[in-house]
Design a protein that fits this description.
The chain is built from 8 helices and 14 strands. It is an alpha/beta fold. The radius of gyration is 18 Å and the shape is globular. The relative contact order is 0.16. The structure holds adenosine-5'-diphosphate.
Length: 262
C-alpha cells in the first residue's frame, strides 16, 4: 500500500519570537502541498510575560522548572497567544489552520515526569497520541497547529518539549502516512562549527553523533533535538531533517540505524 504523504514541521522558539523569520516560515509552510501539521515552541515569551506578572522563572542546573504558576503562564502564552497568532496568520494565507493543545480531542496524553534528581514540576512525558482524531482533522482538510502542551487526562495541563511532541506525533502517524518531519530553527542544520553557518553537515547517523557530543561539536539543545530525530527515523518516520525556514528542502538529513539480522 502506498501511503499518502504528510509533512510535520516543528518551528523553534527563536523563529516564533522573530517577526521576519516567522513570516518566512509560515509562507514556506503554506507553500507545502497536501496534508500537514505545524508544531510550535514557545521561546522566551512565556518567561517575559511571567516576569511582568512577578512570577520568577526557576532554573536548576540550567534547566527550566515549570512551577504551578509558570504552568498557568505557559498555558496562556503557548496555548493562547502564540498558537492563535500562528493560526490567524495561516488563515490569512488560505490555510484552514486549527490551533490545539494535547488536551483538545485528547490529542496527546502525557504523565507528569517523576521526581528523580530534579523536580521539573509540571512537565509531561508523552504516553499516547490520538492518531484517529488527528487523522480525522487531516481528512477534512484542517491544518492542525499544535502548542507544546499536553494533559494527563486527570484535569491537569503539562508543559512538553515541542521537539518531543513533533517526534511523538510523527512516529504515531507514520503507520498511516509517509511522514516527513522537519525541525526548523534559526540555524541552517547541524553545524560542524557553530560559528560557521556554511558548515552544515548534510547527513548524520547515531554512529556519527556520539563522538560529536563527546568532542563538544554538538551541545545544548541540539543533543535532545537529535535524540528526538533519531527516535523518529528509527520508528517508521520516512524522512527527518533539521534545517532553517529559508531552506526547508536543505539542512541536515538524519540517517536511520543500519538494519540488523536479529
Ligand atoms: P529550537 O530553536 O528548536 O528551540 P534549541 O535551541 O533547543 O532549538 O537547539 C538548537 C541549538 O543547539 C542551536 O541554537 C545551537 O545553539 C545549539 N547547537 C549546539 N551544537 C550545535 C551544532 N553542532 N549545530 C547546530 N546547533 C547546535
Amino acid at each position: 500500500m502506498i501511503k499518502e504523504e504528510l509533512n510535520i514541521i516543528k518551528v523553534g522558539g527563536a523563529i516564533v519570537e522573530d517577526e521576519d523569520s516567522l513570516k518566512g516560515l509560515l509562507m514556506s509552510f503554506s507553500g507545502l502541498h497536501g496534508k500537514k501539521i505545524l508544531v510550535h515552541g514557545g521561546g522566551k515569551i512565556a518567561t517575559e510575560v511571567a516576569s511582568k506578572l512577578g512570577i520568577e522563572t526557576q532554573m536548576i542546573d540550567g534547566r527550566r522548572i515549570t512551577s504551578a504558576e509558570m504552568l498557568k503562564v505557559v498555558t496562556m502564552v503557548y496555548g493562547g497567544l502564540v498558537n492563535k497568532d500562528i493560526v490567524a496568520r495561516l488563515q490569512a494565507l488560505g490555510e484552514n489552520a486549527i490551533g490545539l493543545t494535547g488536551a483538545d480531542m485528547n490529542l496527546i496524553m502525557s504523565v507528569k515526569r517523576p521526581v528523580e534528581l530534579i523536580n521539573f514540576g509540571f512537565v509531561g512525558d508523552v504516553k499516547y497520541v490520538n492518531t484517529r482524531s488527528l487523522k480525522s482533522l487531516l481528512e477534512v482538510g484542517a491544518v492542525p497547529v499544535l502548542a507544546p502542551l499536553t494533559h494527563d487526562k486527570e484535569g491537569t495541563m503539562l508543559n512538553t518539549n515541542a521537539d518531543t511532541i513533533a517526534s511523538s506525533v510523527a512516529r504515531a502517524l507514520s503507520e498511516e502516512y509517509s511522514v516527513t518531519l522537519t525541525f526548523c530553527s534559526s540555524i541552517p542544520g547541524v553545524l560542524r562549527d557553530l560559528k560557521d553557518p556554511s558548515s552544515v553537515i548534510r547527513t548524520i547517523s547515531k554512529a556519527d553523533f556520539a563522538p560529536m557530543v563527546a568532542d563538544g561539536t554538538i551541545s545544548e539543545g541540539m543533543i535532545p533535538k537529535l535524540q528526538n530525530a533519531f527516535d523518529a527515523i528509527n520508528d517508521g518516520v520516512a524522512k527527518v531533517v533539521i534545517t532553517s525556514p529559508s531552506d526547508l528542502s536543505g539542512g541536515t538529513t538524519i540517517l536511520a540505524d543500519p538494519e540488523t539480522d536479529d
